[in-house]
Amino acid sequence: MPIRPVTPLLDKADNPAELRKFDKADLQALSSELRDEMISSVSVTGGHFGAGLGVIELTVALHYVFDTPKDRLIWDVGHQAYPHKILTGRRDRMRTIRKAGGLSPFTKRGESDYDPFGAGHSSTSISAALGMAVANKIDEKQGKAIAIIGDGAMSAGMAYEAMNNAKQAGNRLIVILNDNDMSIAPAVGSLSAYLSKLVSSKPFLTLRDIGKNFIKKLPRPLADTARRAEEYARGIAMGGTLFEELGFYYVGPIDGHNMDHLLPVLENVRDAEDGPILVHVVTEKGRGHPFEEPHSEKYHAVSTFNVVTGEQNKATGGGPPSYTKVFAESLIKEAEKNNKVVAITAAMPSGTGIDLFEKRFPDRTFDVGIAEQHAVTFAAGMAAEGFIPFVTIYSTFLQRAYDQVVHDVAVQNLPVRFAIDRAGLVGADGPTHAGSFDLTYLTSLPNFVVMAAADEAELARMVATCAQINNQPSAVRYPRGAGTGADVPENAEPLEIGKGRIVRRGNKVAILSLGTRLSEALKAADELEVKGLSTTVADARFAKPLDVAMLRDLALSHEVLITIEEGSIGGFGAHVLDNLASDGLLDGNLKVRSLKLPDHFQDHGDPAAMYAEAGLDADSITKLVLKVFGRNDLSHTALG
Hints:
Blueprint: H1 16-19, H2 27-45, E1 47-48, H3 50-54, H4 56-65, E2 72-75, H5 82-90, H6 125-139, E3 145-150, H7 157-163, E4 173-179, H8 190-199, H9 202-216, H10 220-238, H11 241-245, E5 249-255, H12 259-271, E6 277-282, E7 301-302, H13 323-337, E8 341-345, H14 349-352, H15 354-360, E9 365-367, H16 372-384, E10 388-394, H17 395-398, H18 402-410, E11 417-421, H19 438-443, E12 449-452, H20 456-468, E13 474-477, E14 501-504, E15 509-513, H21 518-530, E16 535-539, E17 542-544, H22 548-557, E18 560-564, H23 572-582, E19 591-595, H24 607-613, H25 618-628
Parallel strand pairs: 2-3, 3-4, 4-6, 5-6, 8-9, 8-10, 10-11, 11-13, 12-13, 15-16, 15-18, 18-19
Antiparallel strand pairs: 1-7, 12-17, 14-16
């Protein structure tokens, strides 16, 4: 049984209203208890860790100073929202986080009134907060909108797009810049705290207003010079010139772990009559973690662990390598053969395996930060100069750069290669990270070659195929997690473009699979054979271009054709049906069914259970085929 911390203060803070009854002198101790509770909780569940530990004191201070949920607190991404969940009535459910039916690992509107905006991807908080603040302004409501955004998320263009329009919100908008990498202002101390308190105080702001009114009476050239002088004077002293230029009143940097620094500044900001205001808070990601060893990513996410020893529970070894690792090793081999091969990622080097590539080819590795749009057009520029760029990116992150995929890559027919990790369902991370739509949004584009790997060996061959495609864009998709155990060839040969393969031959039912559902299709075929239904299983390999010759053969030589894919409506199955219809193959007795992800967002859970719920497992395939034949004799024995 996990050890539960002793938390007498936290036990009295069931919600922010109760928290606000505390004396300020108790908040530092309360924060310590909250940190212990979060460590205890994540030791049981695993999950996002470092970011939450870094904002413990900030979370307490924000809920203490602001009138949440009337004041809207918007956490960027939501990785850091575990302490927020504990303080907002969800403490008793924290050990269900990331589990089926349990709490979301991110903020979620339907989960709590204290989650006014859902998130899973970064850099959306300022835009959302601005929208809420302007809505309040129009409705003449007094509630504030407070966006908490990390310095990493601030690297994305969307954050600056929002800040460029923030003046419209006035004092209803506050942005908290959580600088947990010390990347903007390394010096934080008593002087900085004093200056921050001073410049955010009402007397200073009132004096500043008097000065601004005086400046208005000056001739325009003198007025502009005076205004800039005031802004730059504070900018030089406090590091906020960039934010001042974007229309924010800058305060900071302040120590995000010191209540004596946080509380007076936040109170001044709350009561300010002008705005918008940006408060620069410096925190330490992973602060107070129980592990002995330091970690370059400050324990962004962890497996379950022992609270006393800090030892993490690792998965048992000896299994197949992950698809991510197979991809990375395959790309390294291609780069060894051709010095034009480069790898590009958007702030996810370890998640995509590019950290392995970087160790071998540091000069050919580019992490552009949380800037997916830039990553795609940057790759297009390299492709235009004859290089072989691989944009290695999660499926859902690529969605954020779709216009660049269309306008800068597809329209110009540039040979950018997209390695799409986390294709299909992703389990505990839920719908914000599920790669459900890439087949649909890529196969609809002219010029694209789109592949999906059935196993590790196929993935290696598809990487080699992408490297050889020099006259058009291409993509290969593969799922999260371990492979099937297939032997990966030492020297993977490229595939013939648009050619699938017959894996086993039958004559009554044809199952045409795209991607890693192939193993489930083979299990279903075994069961169908037992029931007297001879079954062909084919691996399409390519969603675009389709293997029309193989498709025609399957349609003409079988009574039933089933397609299956780990993607949404409008993807592979839709293209198959369109081709069959155009070829007149739906005019006869052929019965066609498409298995795909359901037309709704599936909540987080165990991946195998989620695929079963979606009807994409062997049992579901078998039931569907029997239903088409008017039979209901499916046994309840395991299908392997």
